[in-house]
Write a structure and sequence with these properties.
Blueprint: H1 15-20, H2 30-38, H3 40-72, H4 87-115, H5 131-159, H6 170-197, H7 199-211, H8 222-225, H9 229-239, H10 241-257, H11 265-291, H12 298-322, H13 329-336, H14 338-363, H15 367-409, H16 425-434, H17 437-464, H18 476-498
Helix pairs in contact: 3-4, 3-15, 3-17, 3-18, 4-5, 4-6, 4-18, 5-6, 6-7, 6-9, 6-10, 10-12, 11-12, 11-13, 12-15, 12-18, 14-15, 14-17, 15-17, 15-18
Amino acid sequence: MWADKVQPYPVGTTASAAKTSPGPALVAPMASLWSKLRSLDVYRDTAVTLVLMLYQASLSAFFAFAATFVLSLGLLVSGQSVEKQSSAVFIAGISGTSAVFHLLAVFAAFSGLLARHRWRQRPEQPMPPWFWPWRLLRRSAWFTVTTVLLIHAFAYLVSIGPKALHPFQLHFYGAICLSSFNTAVVDVCTRELYESETVNGARHASSSTSTSTSNSTLSLRSRDMKQSFWRRVGRAYVRNVGMIVALSAAAAYIQVASRVVIKNDWELVAFSLGSLAFRMLILKASQRLTLHHGKVHERTIYLSTAVPTVLIDTQVRFIQLRVQDRVSINGLVAVMAVEPALRLTRCALVARRLRRLRNRKSQSANRVAVTGVTQQVDRVLRFAAAEVHADMCSEYIAMACSASIFYFFHGHPKFMWRESPRDDDTVTVSAARSTPRYTRVSVFLFQVGLEILIDCVCSVWELLLDIPLRVAASVKSHSTILFVACAVANVSVCCSLYAAH
């Protein structure tokens, strides 16, 4: 499981920062900032943060390109080439393959939750890596296969249905609901395995019989154990309703973005700012919901930050690749110049929130109240550091996802652009196709280089304000898995919605 507590000042934070204040020191004297700027600790921490972020982004980009290539082939088991597949068969293939990717990520995540626990029958020795995944697969395989088949069938039926329903992309929303059902099933199977076959699960189950409560994330309450399997699945499904709504909102945004026509620099800037405002609205709502809970897990912070950032920023990068022959390089620079202003504004908001908490702490004489404020300060710091790291990595993942979709689906016979009348008809389409590939690659590399420069400057400033970016190293493996899953899920969502009926 993920660590519940992460030190707000990991190794690498400057000594002056550790002795002065627990949060961002926007109110610190200029002399203190200048002394930290001359220290090597800030630059070392910046380098470590960037190396970790680029490693995670590169790995996510590799899987994004691989997933996009597989999705571009349509229904693999049909034995037909993409040109010979009907639109209904191709959409069914994309929907089913996307579901397989999603279910594999869910299965890996829940298997990882069980990996650290000991088996009740052999508590003295650790189990091999394949032990818990195999036992979980035995419990959930039938449901998973059934879910994939249902998604295939539903997508095919929607595709051959009335054409008036095609613009609503019902095959995608149906796949979300069915995949969430299978996620709930795997969730319940994991909890049952934890309670019945792990040492800690048996201990918590026995203690819950007398206390009716348990502190474990995976433990079942006593009343849940008496319920039927399907009732527990229903409760788990309800817990995932928030994610279903978030994915549906992101899908609606992608549908709107796919119909946007950009003709000049100002329209590109306006679309980017609107997307940024929409993303900030989602992030702010998720931050409020997360920080109001007693415990904040890093996986929750990364999930609530990375998913909307990757989904929305991919569309912005995607539009940039599609219209780069109609806008100048100044338009692209203007769009990317918004990010440092946004990150500096976020630092100011974090500092403002921490000042209020410190004032409340200094005015309170109650020890319990002071402890609560200290814990809240810790949550704000952890959320700020995780949000910065997830935001940085998500930018590169969005670039990779948009580039992979553009590379494999540009001119694809089953993709929406090919017959789209929106891009100034044949003139724009032919101009886009005649654009040399090395020009598009050079623009992509220019975006990556500019993004690295922005991250270097902003990371130094954030470390000067004592935001502990090194906290990301403590959850490296888990955040890497999450970013890879986000990248694969992102290309799956985009390809499913861009597929032409």
